[in-house]
Specification:
mainly alpha; Arc Repressor Mutant, subunit A; Four Helix Bundle (Hemerythrin (Met), subunit A); 3-stranded antiparallel β-sheet; 10 helices; 70% helix; 5% strand
Length: 239
């Protein structure tokens, strides 16, 4: 079947959006970098029109900042942005996991076990790229019952937090991370939404401490503490 010019343009826009977004999130294009639309069009082998559409999407997402004369700046990483990011992640996911845990089925729990096994496999191979997808799916499965719109927002926040994890080496010990994931899964299997939300918050606050130790060690995370005290009070001691 022939593809119309409009369909081709749409496919081109989707492709460049995916590629450019991935390059920003992984740090392939550095935060704070300034470039031109012409340079990006040449780099990704696309026309100016689909590139502009992709950039509009990325600008709405907060990953790029449009500048005069068709210049583009990649959004910087900052303590302000990181704190807001984790305020949103913890607030949304603590509520979403509390909604989801009582509804998890045996099939859901089996899939979560399988995702844990996949994460183990990729970490043994030191394949952090392969690890990312089951890790993302694990967290997504724990919040799916909150609804698709909430899930999409959580997925976007997950992606944005990866910029900070990669830049500031916040992976930490896999043994510690694995224990945190397993504890969350155990609470979910026991149908304990309060414990699951608290353990999830503790898991994210582990990352927060690692990130801010390098990014902005003097920052007072008062707003984040207040958020945790509301949605997962048992985890507030981790800040």
């Amino acid at each position: 079947m022939a593809i119309s010019s409009n369909q081709a343009a749409g496919q081109s826009f989707v492709a460049v959006h995916v590629q450019l977004r991935a390059a920003i999130l992984t740090g392939e294009i550095a935060e704070g970098a300034v470039t031109s639309q012409a340079a990006l069009a040449e780099r990704f082998g696309v026309g100016r029109t689909p590139l502009r559409e992709a950039l509009r999407m990325l600008q709405r997402e907060g990953l790029v900042i449009s500048q005069p004369n068709h210049r583009v700046r990649i959004a910087e990483l900052s303590g302000e942005d990181a704190e807001e990011l984790y305020i949103m992640r913890i607030a949304l996911e603590a509520v979403a996991i509390s909604i989801t845990v009582p509804l998890l089925t045996a099939v859901d729990l089996a899939e979560l076990d399988g995702l844990m096994a996949q994460m183990d496999h990729y970490l043994k191979l030191r394949d952090t790229l392969g690890y990312r997808e089951p890790h993302r799916a694990f967290h997504h499965r724990l919040v799916y019952a909150a609804g698709p719109r909430v899930g999409e927002e959580i997925d976007e926040l997950f992606d944005h937090s990866e910029r900070y994890r990669r830049r500031f080496g916040a992976g930490g010990s896999w043994e510690t991370r694995r224990a945190e994931h397993q504890a969350i899964l155990d609470a979910a299997a026991e149908r304990d939404p309060v414990a699951a939300a608290e353990l999830l918050a503790r898991h994210y606050l582990h990352t927060v401490r690692l990130v801010f130790a390098e990014l902005d060690p003097e920052r007072d995370l008062a707003r984040l503490r207040q958020t945790v005290a509301i949605v997962a009070p048992g985890a507030v001691d981790r800040l």
